[in-house]
Amino acid sequence: MKLPWDARDKRKQDLDEEIQSHLQMSTRDREARGESADQAAASARRELGNTALVRDVTHDQWRWTWLESLWQDVRFAARMLRKSPGFTAVAVLTLALGIGANTAIFSAVNGILLQRLPYPHSEELAELSVTKIFPGTNPGTEAMVYSDLGPSNWQGVRSQSPDITRLAMWKRQEFTLTGQAAPEILQGAEVSNDFFPLLGVSPLIGRTVTASDTQPAQERVVVLSYALWRELFGGESSIQGRKITLNELTYTVIGVMPPEFEYGMAGQRDRKGLWVAFIEQPSSSKDSDQGVSVVVSLKKGVSLPGFNAQLKMVASRLSPNWGEFLRGADIFARDLKPQFGDIQTGLLILMGAVTFVLLIACVNVSALLLGRSFGRQREIAVREALGAGRLRIVRQFLTESILLALAGGCAGILFAIWGVGALRAIAPADTMGIDRVQLDARVLWFTLAVSLLTGLVFGLAPALHASAKRSGAAFNESLTGSLSKYQSRSRRFRGALVVFEIALAVILVIGATLVARSFEKLASVDLGFRTDHLLTVSLTFSPPVCDASKADNLDRCLLAADEVRRRVRGMPGVETAASVSSLPLKEGSAALTLTVEGRKEQMGLEAGNLIAERSVTPEYFQMMGLRLLGGRNFSTTDTKSAPKVAIVNESFALRFFAGNAIGRRFNEGDSKNKDGSPAWIEVVGVVSDSRDNLQIGVTTSPEFYLAFAQSSLSGSAKVIVRTQADPLAMADAVRQQIWSVDKNAPIADVKTMDAILSESVAAPRFRTVLLGAFGALGLLLAMVGIFGVISYAVTQRTREIGVRMALGAQPRDVLGLVLGEGMLLAAIGIVAGAAGALALTKLLESLLYEIKPRDPASFIAVTIAVAAAAALACYIPARRAMRVDPIVALRYE
Questions:
Q1: Helices 762-796 + 856-882 axis angle, to 10
Q2: Is 180 in contact with 746 (CB distance < 8 Å)?
Q3: Is residue 825 over pLDDT 50?
Q4: What string of DSSP letters covers 588-633?
């Protein structure tokens, strides 16, 4: 079998033979008419004409000639780059840094934001939720509350919505898995029998939930996620039919879902979860009205905006039957894509930053190619003399630039491999989808596209500039004389490139500086409590010890929590221990409705106010370093049977009681006593403020603390332990004390408070590190660019400098001349960059903490830093210019 190029060689050979055959036939005819052999041969050649031209014209009529010509350009470009290894290495390394950074960040965007949903016809699927907006007490404040309806109400919505073809219900649930090495908390969901068929996903092993599984008194069944099957059950192929214990109940494993399926698991990063059958309850049962989430399939061609308009009308008809709280609420549909919030904003900003880095790299290489093209003017003149048009010369230069870009892309992949590993290492632990960040086929295609585009971007301008028509005197005059006009244009163009890349670097560095200053302020916030030597533990008591679903079991739950604290406090190296309902900086709850005695208006989340609440034991305040400003601490007399009391923070006291809070009362959730009177909570103490949330845009909130002994313990409890030495060294001993009280209690999130503090600022730290790195890289590339341009200018002006020095110019005059030229370019670039930053840094506003996007200090600091770096980059070639020998310079050509 002949290859294509073998066939072309054969056609060329046939063409040569045909031409020779034609000449021979013409010669024989002439000889037959009486001409001599020499005369006949000469006449035949004159008649045919230029055989080389005939061969070229015929060759140009063949198909795919352009491919052969392109291959010639590629081979020539490769030879030219091989002849200049220094230039090639610098250009490839510069491009590799820019392309590698773009590839690494795009891999994160691809893995987190652009992953396709693993559901067939996902465009026809939607989630429904009930929303109600409560106007705030302050102008511009509001609160949106999300709620889930009961099964019967959702069925009513379906019957009123003609665009819904199918509806499946599910409810998030937490399960305690026992019988393994250690008890473990797993996230999962109860799902209806329509759940998996509606999503259109088949199990990897076994089957999914069917209608018979949802009937009461049937065998309990469970479907495992792929991650749970692999990690806890070792990928056992015979897992189907195995019995496992969840929440003290026996379930039979009926299937395992594919790796990419995770719907209903609340987006946890490890994707270890499970699905159990949603057991149908009689319509008279309270459980029939429990809130569930729903996913629906829509008729083909139905758009979400149109469907939401339909749901708004349905809600207006049905919401009066949903109770007072949800009267006037709306139903909202959205697609099944995860909601990323600040993660999406941060990734898109990082993508913009690496694009700036790549543009700076392109400008640098473009300047290098421009300088290199000056040394190739004689070659270009020869090409023009031989008939090459401008388009042909441009194509040759573009071929070289694209070849450079592809080499840079290949090297950039090596940088990206390291970069992806670094991204996964420094990304916040709870970043959803971070485990999917990798160099897959889509990322590699992106790299190829970026490489080709980059080659065109940095190669087009030098190619057009080099191929521009000149005087054509390259053969008749010296290069310095004939091309002085071209040299002047080249210098101006390179100056424009330097201005552009410095402007880009200034924008990039200003953005990085703003984010860094914001993070510094966030990290230095006074929390109002101590974080040192604190160990935090989350545990859930097993039903035999504390069955929170039964009201008469509350005392047993509290006794179990008291026993855990008592045993932990008795350990050597432990100062004290406290129980809390939620951990600072990590969890929290907000009062939905709060009424102050003597005031008509309501406060709380329902009124658009964020009021934090937490149940704590008396040891909590001293352990955390919260100062008691007035009143008393909780005592042993604050029991379930005693009047309910609270301790409020200073912000709560000032906002609702004008600072006089002791003895005042408020009601949470409009609760009632058995006799129907308001269940007032009396304020018995005031403590100093503390920050419970380090999210950007959130400040210190009013907060009240309830006595832990008076709270309704749900079975889960948090224990905070203050130790004398390293808290983590006590972790195993603390676990053993908990298991001595409840051997089946799952223990999770054993962390120090310092670690929780670090996690709470992980996202802004992640952005700060990356933007800082890209800003530094962009500035470095810009300084290399200005250094290269000034160095090249000094080389070009060596003779001029020699003349100046021969006429009496001092070294300091030469220094000022070169520095002045470089700093003028830098000054223009800095001003342009600062103007661009004023417009673009507005995009960072949502990521900044106590820093304005147009912070003067950041702009001034960056301006000074960039000017200093530019001065240093100019000083090195300027100093070399000072040492020019006038005698040598005057002989310089």
A1: 30
A2: no
A3: yes
A4: -EE-S-EEETT--SEESGGGT---EEEEE-THHHHHHT--EEEE--
